[in-house]
């Protein structure tokens, strides 16, 4: 996820192209920053995250929404790395995007983690908690 180098906010708008690089303006602190234009190789970090989420049972569209990566790219990586997951129509995880404090609060309540599995994965400056309730029903 693209964040402002000045304040780490994800809240920004496109603001022209400078030297073939997309420029953004942070809506929170008004800082201008640029990133390489689309076409640059996507960081392996996102490839790993996308495949991780795919294995967790998320759909291409969900991964696209979370990571901001085209579902077509994700589909191509799944093919490229020959990732297969068992077909299971009943299993589908729920997920939450939390910051470090919220994550701590979540885990401090035993009811939240009882009878359910959870994995936490870093996501930009926040964390994603994926949870499933395999033994319910
Ligand atoms: Zn900012």
Automatic annotation (TrEMBL):
InterPro entries: ATPase_terminase-su_N, Homeodomain-like_sf, Transposase_27_IS1. Pfam families: Terminase_5. Residues 49-85 form the Terminase ATPase subunit N-terminal domain. Signal peptide: none annotated. This is Homeodomain-like domain-containing protein. It comes from Nonlabens ulvanivorans (Persicivirga ulvanivorans). The lineage of its organism: Bacteria, Pseudomonadati, Bacteroidota, Flavobacteriia, Flavobacteriales.
């Amino acid at each position: 996820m693209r964040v402002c180098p000045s304040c780490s906010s994800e809240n920004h708008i496109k603001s022209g192209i400078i030297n073939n690089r997309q420029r953004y303006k942070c809506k929170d602190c008004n800082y201008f920053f640029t990133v390489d234009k689309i076409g640059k190789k996507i960081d392996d970090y996102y490839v790993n995250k996308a495949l991780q989420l795919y294995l967790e049972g998320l759909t291409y569209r969900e991964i696209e929404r979370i990571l901001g990566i085209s579902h077509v790219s994700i589909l191509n990586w799944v093919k490229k790395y020959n990732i297969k997951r068992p077909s299971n129509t009943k299993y589908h995880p729920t997920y939450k995007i939390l910051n470090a404090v919220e994550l701590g609060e979540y885990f401090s309540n035993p009811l939240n983690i009882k009878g359910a599995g959870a994995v936490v994965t870093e996501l930009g400056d926040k964390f994603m908690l994926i949870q499933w309730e395999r033994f319910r029903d």
